[in-house]
Amino acid sequence: MEWANQLCENRQFGSKMTDSKYFTTTKKGEIFELKAELNSDKKEKKKEAVKKVIASMTVGKDVSALFPDVVNCMQTDNLELKKLVYLYLMNYAKSQPDMAIMAVNTFVKDCEDANPLIRALAVRTMGCIRVDKITEYLCEPLRKCLKDEDPYVRKTAAVCVAKLHDINAQLVEDQGFLDTLKDLISDSNPMVVANAVAALSEIAESHPNSNLLDLNPQSINKLLTALNECTEWGQIFILDCLANYTPRDDRESQSICERVTPRLSHANSAVVLSAVKVLMKFMEMLPKDLDYYGTLLKKLAPPLVTLLSAEPELQYVALRNINLIVQKRPEILKHEMKVFFVKYNDPIYVKLEKLDIMIRLASQANIAQVLAELKEYATEVDVDFVRKAVRAIGRCAIKVEQSAERCVSTLLDLIQTKVNYVVQEAIVVIKDIFRKYPNKYESVIATLCENLDSLDEPEARAAMIWIVGEYAERIDNADELLESFLEGFHDESTQVQLQLLTAIVKLFLKKPTETQELVQQVLSLATQDSDNPDLRDRGYIYWRLLSTDPVAAKEVVLAEKPLISEETDLIEPTLLEELICHIGTLASVYHKPPSAFVEGSRGVMHKRLPARTGSGESTESPDVGTAAGGSAPEAAPSIIPSQGDLLGDLLNLDMAPPTTTGPPPPNTGMQMGGMDLLGGGLDSLMGDESEPPHVPPRTDILRSPSPQPLSPVYTHTDYTYTDYSHTDSPPDHSPPDHSPTEHSPPAELGGDIGGSPAMGAGFGAAPAVMPASLNAPVGGGLGDLFDLGGGVGMPMGAYIPPKTVWLPAMKAKGLEISGTFARRAGVIQMELILTNKAMSVMTDFAIQFNRNSFGLAPAGPLQVLTPLGPNQTIEVSLPLSTVGPVMKMDPLNNLQVAVKNNIDVFYFSCQYPISMLFVEDGKMERQVFLATWKDIPNDNESQFQIKDCHLNSDAASSKLQGSNIFTIAKRTVEGQDMLYMSIKLSNGIWVLAELRVQAGNPNYTISLKCRAPEVSQCVFQCYEAVLKN
């Protein structure tokens, strides 16, 4: 607390030996005595009494009853007594606002005192008293103090502006204090400059869209001048401010780096990390072939190494930051491997972090040294550390191919130790090595099989099962080994069960005559005796494949596997860029953006590194994707991007024309974003829900990994597969059920499968059992309201958001991209405006999307038919489909885009309104609406407020219908109109809504019900946007 900090300052005015006596009193009834002493005529007695009051306040006693008596002591020339009274005021003014007004005159008078310490003390105290009535009296004294002749007063007043802004932002803006604060950046005193920057930064954080820190080359020069002379915390404020500036070109960037570099030798680690942050950001703009670039890399290493000689806690913070730096620029520390070797007395958290960085720095030049260290670590006593060391050996093998043989040999040596947890970790990493180097080290399988009985951890058991299944043709007794796991199938973890199922199917496809009984046994266990929907789904897929088309099953299950990536735990590039901009803060320790852990941070601006302006450099990346709609080339196996690498698919654009050139067909209920074959992607979002009869059923498009679609695939979950043998009759529209049940053995699984033509042959899912209550007429409660029709007007046009700038020219070498999304005649359009602000002609445009929540993908090429000359603008409309690959994004409607031209590839993110996915056949029948509303759990219901909307219910309904939000019914209860609406998304998800509109009340209440509650927030945002625009 502010008053506690000042209390520490006050100790210089009194005897440190005697102040403790004020905290030892245990008298009762002392308030009366203190009151008498405070009103004493003797100054010393009065000061002693105030000290006693402050001591009581500090230990938690309530001395607010003495407020008027303490305030009377303000009229004094004694600086120590005045400070003590101000401390008391700061603590109790909030609980006694009316009494605090009594002190205003003294504050105003003190702000004009001849002593600058008293002037500063008065304005600082007034800023800390968070009482609205006092703030209006603070304005005039604060204005004078901001222009005071003494720099100590000015620097105190600068911080006071930030405090006042927190209390009453409008008052600060009206009084012009922000402009005065900006002027203080040009102050002659460096500490005033630092405090002004700190105050403006604090205000800018709470108002991210305001351009308070309008930095330009002139103001940057002033900040750099002040940097050399202010205190260490002042330097941190200025460096953090510099990090938010984007230089005009590489020359300015180099100039700033040269002036910031001396801060790297500062004794304060916070200053060092802030300087590193600035340099890491501005290095982005320096050409790599520049001599200064190499010099800067060399200068960055020593300060980072020095940070590792501090105490363990500081070491950990430094290591977490170094981890980010090494991922971005490993060349900085590539010669400093030894400093990351673990010491015997390092705490475990430091050891694990050092180990991580060692792997990131491992290369062919130092791999022998690294492996020797890791082998030593594997004999330590700390189990967690040993496990990570063993895994690190495997990562070295995958990262540095030349070391793979030595790593495998080291792992075999560790297996021979027979230490249980070492053996298990070694088997897990050897499985990854097999994936990276197929048909190279399989000779060790016999050694691995010898340790089969000692495996008791799920991950190790799953890895061993994978190895047995993958190399079943080389293991004579593979069926016996897998059968031994099958004995306790239901006691195994899901991970092991799934792996065992796949391994036995692989074994069957390789040795069909010997293992037919085994595969039937595992399929029966997985589908009939298991409660796990993932396991059951996979079992049904395999069962259907094996029973209808064994050749196709072989192509799918035994397909050549892509190689695993070298770095599986790299931070996703856009997140890494943001974290580099937060070096030296808590975000760099958590490895999460501030918005992930700071409450109320919805307005936080996401920071990005500036674009390089130097000589173009190509980003080498694995071939992980093709242009939207194109087929995957049958070339060498591609590398799987790491799980966290959201831009993995965008890094290498295949610019061949997509196979689909026309606009996509209108979405139907059966179309949906693709999902992974065995249940990946958006499990909960994309429709793992039960549906009542006659409601369009949830459907899954299962996409084969091979370029040719595999037709005879059929999926079941416990929501979509139902045995109707115990009901009177299934719904009329259900397809024939060929799913395996207790009464149907695997041999009877053949035959065609019904389903919608939109799904192609072999797709379809039986709906859930009809609840008995739906067969009877519905009455009472919600049922009655559907008899009351609502008059709704003619639909208006669909809402189209205004175009916004998605990619500024300064970040894309002169190419500016603006755009929006629209839905016209059932086709989603991405409407783009491309502007060339560079001096060269731009040609060869192409576009690709990353995987996203709803499978959005270009349905055709980007049609820029003529070269885009300097200062020219062209408008392009790109049709989109919703059958692209799926991955859940945050936020759900985030879309990551890559645009390529003859100059470079550029990346940006934008957010599409989810209303673009609302399809035209989303109007439910009333009875179906009612049944569905009842069937969706109440936990899935979300309620929101739409404020400041002045439409009546009919106008609102008409406006919403233009965006495919259909009103099913309307009723009026006690003057409140209640609209019941349905929405259908392109992936088959239904959203039901109840909108309450009261005449004369501009605030609407909306309740949303959906089986995938993740979409409710986005749907609410669409309601708000449509109704308010």
From TrEMBL:
The record's GO molecular-function terms, alphabetically, read: clathrin binding
* Compartments, as annotated in UniProt: Endomembrane system
* InterPro entries, per database record: AP_beta, AP_complex_bsu_1_2_4, ARM-like, ARM-type_fold, Armadillo, B-adaptin_app_sub_C, Clathrin/coatomer_adapt-like_N, Clathrin_a/b/g-adaptin_app_Ig
Q: Which ranges are annotated Low complexity under compositional bias?
A: 629-659, 714-724
An example Gene Ontology biological process? vesicle-mediated transport
**Signal sequence bounds:** none
Stretch list, region Disordered: 609-758
Q: Which GO terms describe its cellular component?
A: clathrin adaptor complex; cytoplasmic vesicle; endomembrane system
- Mainly resides where? membrane
**Basic and acidic residues bias located where?**
725-741
Q: Which residues form the Clathrin adaptor alpha/beta/gamma-adaptin appendage Ig-like subdomain domain?
A: 799-909
Q: How does it sit in the membrane?
A: Peripheral membrane protein
Keyword Acetylation tagged: yes
Q: Which residues form the Beta-adaptin appendage C-terminal subdomain domain?
A: 918-1028
Keyword Transport in record: yes
Q: Which UniProt keywords apply?
A: Acetylation, Membrane, Protein transport, Transport
Q: Which family does it belong to?
A: Belongs to the adaptor complexes large subunit family.
Its recorded name reads AP complex subunit beta
Lineage of producing organism: Eukaryota, Metazoa, Chordata, Craniata, Vertebrata
